[in-house]
Structures are given as structure tokens and as C-alpha cells.
Amino acid sequence: MSDLDPFRQETRAWLEENCPESMRTPVRSFLEMYSGGRNPEIDHPDQKVWCDRMAERGWTVPQWPKEYGGGGLDRDEVKVLREEMARINARSPLDSFGISMLGPALLKFGNEEQKLEHLPKICRGEIRWCQGYSEPNAGSDLASLATRAEDKGDHYLINGQKVWTSYADKADWIFCLVRTDNSGSKHEGISFVLFDMDQPGVTVRPIRLISGSSPFCETFFDNARAEKKDLVGAEGNGWTIAKYLLTHEREMISGFGAAPKKSVGQLAMESMGADASGRLANSILRQNIAQYQLDTFAFAATMARVGDEAKAGQGLGAASSIFKYYGTELNKRRNELNLAALGEPALGWEGDAYRGGAVSRDWLRSKGNSIEGGTSEVQLNIIAKRVLGLPDE
Amino acid sequence: MALVLNEEQVMLRDSAAGFLAEKATVAQLRELRDSGSERGFDESVWREMAEMGWAGIAIPEAFGGLGYGYTGLGLVLEQAGRNLSVSPLQSSVLVAATVIAELGGDGQKEQLLPAIAAGEKLVTLALQEGPHHAPAQVATTAEAAGDDWVLSGCKVLVLDAHVADSFIVIARSGGRAGEESGLSAFLVDAGTPGVSLERRSLVDARNAGVLSLESVRVPAASLLGPAGDAWSGLNRALDIANIGLASELLGLSAEAFERTVGYLKERKQFGRVIGSFQGLQHRAAELFAELELARSIVLQALQAIDDGQEDLSLMASAAKAKLCEVAQRATNEGIQMHGGIGMTDEHEIGFFIKRARVAQHTFGDYNYHLDRFAQLSGF
Fold first, then answer.
1. Which of A225, B71, B108, B316 has the most CB atoms around its CB within 10 Å?
2. What are phi and psi of B241, to 5 degrees?
3. What region, left, alpha or beta, does residue B52 occupy, with left being phi > 0 and alpha being psi -120 to 50 degrees?
4. What fold is seen in the domain B124-228?
């Protein structure tokens, strides 16, 4: 630790100097997060100042190599930076799919030219990305996607439709799975291409969910153009990259299973009160909550165990295969119990008295957790076949 | 502490797995049951276990044990659960030695713990009185008579009762049934006048019995810890006992599950192996997920004992409740997925469901511990 001390000192001083006061407050909702792009959504002018200053040091993505716009920091240094940012409550300067999704894929599968072209713009928040995966007829069965990419020599012509493209209405570029070949198995002939959304052949329509407005969109391609140099990996190799990113996405979604600050049991006690023995007044609800909290407790221990096993060099064990399935099911249970525990106030949809329907909208939104990024049923198929070795039908 | 096993623990687990799979198997349990064994366990196997130090794994070195802690004992119990191994590991080592370590004075520990660790003396806890685990409800009386105490009452589900050398009897020297204060722990030798024993036959075919105490006179020196103040030590010992039983249930559930998945890959109906049916695959996959949670919560609880964590009761009730739930599901699915063969006594899967229910009930079942978990969580 002691050899990191100068780095910590330097980091602390720089952050004190450069982090605007307004960026030292917690982010209250995703609307206050900064995602950059050609036409960034600005909630506060300091967001861009803070992002630019951090980007200049490579600290918007401190773990990426310096030549691609990152900070070139090692794991310990990244930890120190995070700790020092947390010390002054500094917000994350930039959150985007470019950082969380495309970047890791380009670092692993992209060529040098692609990395140099796209990664620095992600780090500087110049280009905002969206993900073109699901289609109306390719959800759980993603590999049957049908959006065509026709070879036109130096470019592809893209025709088809994507759905659930988060922030497509805000994004500048898309990383997209397309079909370049129909002759082999459905997993073959899928390619991973990048292209600009600002062109006549691309139309975007936002989707309204049961929970209200959402970042999701439908995206239509009518002779959209993708340059050949923006094909990532070999033609027909897109499924490998897609699988890599899906695993990545599932790990992010499974984080939903973590226990919230105030337990459902406490919420119910505040809302309903206790009986003469000090137990929650309704014994049926109490049992349901107890079962949920017990499973949350055991799930948290499992996340910790798998993390510790990885740190001890035992690799990612079979337990990690349950995270997406179990975490999202737990989140759905928690939201159902919230509704039951809070009663009438949880049913509000609009208005200040109901905090804009925050509880009911979260509850409705949670229903999608076990659908997006691989349904619970698909996750169970994967466990049955890959972990337990049960045969195909 | 990281939720991984260290090298010493991995070696202990592996050697326990090897030994028990050879010497203390389900087949041996069947043989003990069918032969109407007088002692109810194989004494030569128990001697070997003691020689390897297992009877003293969690007992401090100062008192003749190995001082490996309860995580070590839990790993051996997990393997015992896998093989349904019969031995006094639960009664004497996990429970009685822990009560003595929690409540006894140094002299009592010196006198008792090395003998338990050597496998020479078999001690067991006599606690439960009614149909359910309810430690504060103890009504067995302890009355002071000069320098002695006189004990009267009746205890059920006393593990290894008919082969025990001594009992730790929980009795009420003050207060009334339902109160935590007023409970005392006494060491009572099996031969003491007024003590009578009845061996009972339980569904798991393991040793248990009823202990009756009719005006049993014991000297003041037999009192473990201060009179009327046994609760906190007993409570901690019961937490540890339940975590140990959770370890046993973990091994039992994992073994029942693995045997069941193996059967799904083998059994053919409608011209294909039944494990190819999605209806069964999803149930198996869900159970796999539950077993992963079970493994984590047990390891966390075992480490909480050895780390001296203050929220041990929460950890213990969480682990026991979860393992009761998982063991129930794993053994029920075990029978169902084996189909007709699973209903026969000839097949071994039935031994797992029988042992599971007795271990689940012992020192509090799912309902008891989920209620306690909720109370300790503040609702």
C-alpha cells in the first residue's frame, strides 16, 4: 500500500482542484447521469466540464490503456481513484454503453485501427453508442436474427428492424448484429458491425412500457450504410462477440438482486405495525417477507463467495451461472412484496403524494428483468445443459 | 474472512470424503438398521475417526483437541451428510462438547473435553421436552437440596441416549416455563439412581431415546456454569449445533441431488432419457441454484463461529432455515424424479429423505428458524 501513497496524494489533490462542487452530490436518478454524445443531455453545465477534465487525464475509463484514451491505471490505482472520488462524493463523470459494453468487446475482438478510431471518442464522451441485438422475431432465440447486411464492396447495406435498442433515440452510433450469410447454421453468418445512426436509412421510435416512458426504442434500417472497416472480427464471427457481451450484460443485471438499504420487513413494520409479541401484524405477509429476505441473504453470500473464489484464483465457478436467473427473480419478489407491504401508497401512478408512482413503476419495470438479457427460462436451460450436463431433447 | 477454504481445510474435507465413502456409507446404515445393532453405530469406525482427531476438531488444543475450529468440523459433517455416516459426531462432538466449552468451568473442561476428543467418553444433550424444539419452555425441575441438586423431568429426542456415558440435562432452577432466565445445565452420569432410558426407533434409524429423571440427586459440582444463568451459553451452543446440522444437511442434499441428476441421465422412457425433458431440467436447474445458495450460507455461518461474530444467531437461523428448505426440496424431488424405484426400500434415495427430516427437526425446524430469523431481522 505504501508505494501507492504518492499516487493517492496526487489524485486527492487533483480531484479537490478539478471536481466542480456541483458534481459532489449524489446522482438521484438516471436523468442526472451524463452519457455524452454529439447532442448530450445536460442536466447541469458542470457535467460536461467534469467529464472533459476527467477525460483529459484518461480517468473517465481509468482502466483502459492510455493509447486508447484511458488512464492506463492498474487495478490498485483504479481502486485508489474510486476511493478518492467516493471520499468527496464525486459523481461518475461519464456512464455509457460505449464504456460498459462496446469498449470491452473492441478491446477483445477489434483490430488496432478500430480501437484507435472508436475508443478515444468513447473515453471523451464524444460519441454515444446503442446496442442493436433483439429483433421482433429474435428475442430469446437471438441467433435467428434476420436483419440483413448486403455486401457492396467497400460497405454493407443494412435492412431490417431491431427492438429494445436502449437510448437509440439519443445515440450517435450503433453496434449491431446483422446477418451476412444465410447458408450455414443460424449461429454462423452473423456479423458484428458498427455504423452511424445519423443517416437517412435509420428511423427510431421510442417504446412506452407498462411502467411508463423508457429508454427503449424500435429501430428501423432501410438501406442504411455500414463501412467494411467497421466490421468487428471476421465476417460471420459475430455470434462469438455477442455471447461475450451477453455474459457481460447478465452480470450487470444480476446486480439487481442486491439487498436495498431499508429491508422490506422494516418497510412493512412502518406501514402495518406489530402484534403483541412484536412480530409484524400479518403473519402471512411476514412469512413471505422472511422467505424473501432469507434468500436475499443467501444470494449475497453467494455473490461474495464467487468473488472470493475468483480472487483466490479458482476461476468463475458454476455458481456464477445462477446469478442472472436468481438475482432478477429476487428483484421481482422484492417489488411484489413492496406493494403488499406498503399498501395503498404503493399503488399511486402520478402526483407528488406518490412520488410520481416510483414504487408501482419500479414494480412494473422489474417484470422485464427476467426477460431482458436472456429470460429466466433460457438461463435454466443453460444451467441444465452446460452445468448439469443434461441432454438435449 | 474470504469465503473460500484454505489448504488445510481442503485436505481435511478430502480425507473425510475418502474415509467416510469407504467406511461409513449408506449401506452400513442399512446394515446397522437391519441387524438391529445393539450400539447403533460401528465402534471400530468411530475409533478410527477419533484416532484421526475428528472427535476433537473444534476442541481447543489446550483441552486435547486439534483446534481446527468449527469450519473444520462442518466440513467433516458435510461429508458425513453425503454418506449418511452414523457416529456420535453430532451428539457428543458437535453438541455436548460445545455446551461444555460454552458453559463449563476450566476444571470441568479439563475433565470432559479431552475424553470426548479421544472418543472415549460419549456425552449428549438432553433438552427437548414437548413435540417441538422450544428451549425456553423447559419445565424439568432442579431443586437445591443442601449441597446437591435434585432433578425431575422427561426429555425426548436425546441423541445417542442409550449409549451415552453422561448427559447434559437442561433444567429449571428458577423462573417458569417460557422464560429464558432460570435455566441451568447439569452433568448427569448414565448410572445415577433415578435415571432411566428408553431407546426409541425413529424414521432415520439412528440412535435417539427418552431420558426420564425421577428425583435424580447430583452434587453441586455437576452444575455447568452459574445456576439459573445457562441461557446465553446454551443459546450460542444451539446456534453452533444448528450450523453443524446445516452442514450435514448440505452434504445430504448435494448427494441426493447428484444421485438424482445421475438417474435423470440414465433412465429412459418414451424412447429417450428423461433428463432431456425440459420440465425436469428446469426443476433440476432451480434446485442447483438453491444448493449454491445453501453452500454459501453454510460456509458463511461456519466462519462466523470461528470469527466470533456477534450476529451468530442470525447467521445460524438463516443457515438452518435455508438448509431445511433445500433439504426438503432436494429429497422430495429425489423421490419424485426416481419414480417408482425411489419408493422402494431397496433403493438408497429413501434413506436421504428419512435422515433429512430428523436432522431438520433437531434443535428447530424451518418454521422455528425462519420465525427466529424474522425476529432477529426486526419484524
1. B316
2. -60, -45
3. alpha
4. Butyryl-CoA Dehydrogenase, subunit A; domain 2 (2.40.110)
How many residues can be counted in chain B?
379
The domain locations on chain B are 7-121, 124-228, 232-376
Does B375 touch chain A if contact means CB atoms closer than 8 Å?
A: yes
- What's the ipTM? 0.94
Can you spell out the DSSP letters for A329-356?
HHHHHHHHHHHHHH-GGGG--SSGGGGG
Q: Do A59 and A93 contact (CB within 8 A), yes or no?
A: yes
Q: What distance in Å separates the CA atoms of residue A85 and residue B167, rounded to the nearest whole number?
A: 60
- On whether any CB of chain A is under 8 Å from the CB of B26, the answer is no
Contact assignment for A384 to B285 by CB distance below 8 Å: yes
Distance CA A87, CA A90 (A): 8
B170 DSSP β-pair partners: B185
CA distance A192 to A156: 12
Q: Which letter does DSSP use for residue B95 in this model?
A: I
Q: Quick one: angle between helices B312-338 and A283-311, nearest 10?
A: 90
3-state DSSP call for residue A22?
A: helix
Query: How is domain A129-235 classified at the architecture level of CATH?
Result: Beta Barrel (2.40)
Neighbours of A262 (CB within 10 A): 9
**Three-state secondary-structure class, residue B198:** strand
Task: Work out the angle at residue B29's Cα, subtended by the Cα atoms of residues B27 and B32, and round it to the nearest 5 degrees.
Answer: 110
Q: Do domains A129-235 and A258-387 have the same CATH topology?
A: no
Q: What is the largest CA-CA distance in chain A?
A: 79
Angle between helices A5-18 and A46-56 (to 10 degrees): 150
Residue ranges of domains in chain A = 2-93, 129-235, 258-387
Which residues on chain A are in Cβ contact (under 8 Å) with B281? 380-381, 384-385, 388, 390
Which residues of B are less than 8 Å from A287 in CB distance? 370, 374
B107 at the A interface (CB within 8 A)?
A: no
In words, the CATH class of domain B7-121 is: mainly alpha
Angstroms from A301 CA to nearest CA on chain B: 5
Q: Tell me if residue A214 falls in helix, strand or coil.
A: strand
Smallest CA–CA distance, residue B319 to chain A, in Å, is 8
Instruction: Return d(Cα A147, Cα A125) in angstroms, integer.
Output: 28
Residue A102, C-alpha cell as written in the block: 462496446
Q: Does any CB of chain A come closer than 8 Å to the CB of residue B378?
A: yes
Kindly give the confidence (pLDDT) of every residue in chain B, 379 residues in length, as a single tens digit, with 9 standing for 90 and above.
799 999 999 999 999 999 999 999 999 999 999 999 999 999 999 999 999 999 999 999 999 999 999 999 999 999 999 999 999 999 999 999 999 999 999 999 999 999 999 999 999 999 999 999 999 999 999 999 999 999 999 999 999 999 999 999 999 999 999 999 999 999 999 999 999 999 999 999 999 999 999 999 999 999 999 999 999 999 999 999 999 999 999 999 999 999 999 999 999 999 999 999 999 999 999 999 999 999 999 999 999 999 999 999 999 999 999 999 999 999 999 999 999 999 999 999 999 999 999 999 999 999 999 999 999 999 9
Cβ atoms of B27 and B2 closer than 8 Å: no
Q: Is the CATH number 1.20.140.10 carried by domain A258-387?
A: yes
- Of all residues in chain B, what percent are helix, strand and coil, respectively (each to 5)? 55, 15, 25
A84 bridge partner residues: none
Ramachandran area for residue A285 (φ above 0: left; ψ -120 to 50: alpha; else beta): alpha
- Burial class (CB within 10 angstroms; exposed 0-12, middle 13-18, buried 19+) of B323: buried
For residue A91 the three cell numbers come to: 459523481
Residues belonging to chain A: 393
Considering CB atoms only, which of A280, A309, A387 is closest to B288? A387
3-class DSSP state of A74: coil
Q: Exactly one of A56, A249, A251, A270 is catalytic; which is it?
A: A249
* C-alpha cell belonging to residue B176: 417458569
